[in-house]
Amino acid sequence: MSLALYGVSLTVPALEFLPVSDSSNPSVPPADSVQEIWSGREILMLGWLAIFDMQIAWYANPLHLINLGLMAGRMWRLNTAISALTLAVGLNTLLLFWQEIAIGMAEDGRLQSLHIGFYCWITSLSIPVVWNSWQWWVASTHSKASSE
Predict the structure, then answer these.
(1) Domain containing 58: what range?
(2) What pLDDT, in 10s, does the model give residues 99-120?
(3) 147 is a domain residue
(4) Taking the model in full, what pTM does it have?
(5) Nearby residues of 119 by Cβ (< 8 Å), 6 or more positions away
């Protein structure tokens, strides 16, 4: 389910940016501004560059894949920690409402709105948190019951 939602998030619009050009009053958009809507695929290809603007949300993608791979090992405590970290890193996207990043050749922008792709992506990151936490709880209750 998580991988399916992740795949959907790559095909639909995810983030909408509004260019910001007036450095004296960044809350006022330029008169000729055109909103840019980025799909999940575009963000996946170019998002790693946001590290130069101190934005780390893209790095939730490799963490997510690592976590999905580690789930086969059934180390639920470790997987719960990694999946929670992955979700926290992904939620760093919300800082873009207050942070300017490069969105084009010579323009900066600020996040204007979130689209369905973002919600699919965050949900795909949330599923392993819930699943790993549940499995950790089940494993701990079974080990307590078997030791009694």
Answers:
(1) 2-141
(2) 988 887 778 889 999 999 999 9
(3) no
(4) 0.83
(5) none
